[in-house]
Recover the amino acids of this structure.
């Protein structure tokens, strides 16, 4: 939903990240109903209310809003602690380290493409093991890999950017529904796959960046105590 601060006829301004998302979803549509369900879903232990679940939901919302503590967010929050110049990624040392860079760092693209191949194989196994899989369904992996979601990644214009930032592409639903006619079983596969992607891919690259940047912070004597 768009909010107009100065009336409905006023121009709407977006951050670069928001503009990039809007450009992507113009050609790779998002299922907003399932996205909303995913963002609100309790993940870790199934309990309706718990600290781990609150933490997980908060993390997903920060991914969605591009508010994880990358260099640019830290500079905004603590302008006296961090250099005023743009801070480069401590992994590739070539691109600015912001939320859009997570997962798409040149130093990690080979690994990301490998992870996407594994993810395609995992999705294939979920479909084939479903009770709703049509009889005789076997070699569907090539079909899954032909989806743009699992095509080679070269930059942040790839549709997997949406899933990394917690938006569920309609194309993923289409890939599943092509083989699974039962909506109920299809949603189970969808939820299981997105949870896998979140834990095995999204969190993986965030942890790499977070740990690397934290080491840089310590080398500059930027500590949690100084942020209080």
């Amino acid at each position: 939903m768009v909010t107009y601060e100065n009336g409905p006829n006023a121009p709407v301004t977006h951050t670069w990240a928001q503009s990039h998302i809007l450009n992507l979803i113009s050609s790779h549509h998002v299922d907003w109903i399932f996205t909303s369900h995913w963002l609100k879903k309790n993940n870790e232990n199934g309990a309706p209310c718990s600290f781990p679940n609150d933490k997980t939901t908060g993390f997903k919302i920060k991914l969605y809003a591009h508010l994880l503590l990358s260099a640019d967010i830290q500079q905004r929050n603590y302008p006296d602690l961090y250099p005023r110049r743009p801070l480069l990624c401590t992994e590739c040392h070539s691109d600015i380290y912001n939320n859009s860079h997570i997962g798409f760092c040149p130093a990690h693209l080979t690994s990301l493409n490998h992870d996407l191949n594994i993810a395609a194989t995992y999705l294939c196994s979920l479909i084939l093991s479903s009770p709703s899989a049509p009889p005789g369904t076997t070699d569907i992996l090539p079909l899954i890999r032909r989806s743009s979601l699992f095509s080679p990644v070269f930059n942040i214009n790839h549709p997997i950017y949406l899933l990394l930032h917690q938006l569920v592409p309609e194309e993923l639903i289409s890939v599943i529904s092509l083989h699974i006619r039962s909506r109920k079983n299809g949603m189970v596969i969808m939820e299981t796959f997105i949870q896998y992607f979140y834990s095995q891919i999204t969190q993986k690259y965030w942890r790499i960046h977070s740990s690397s940047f934290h080491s840089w912070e310590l080398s500059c004597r930027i500590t949690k105590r100084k942020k209080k």
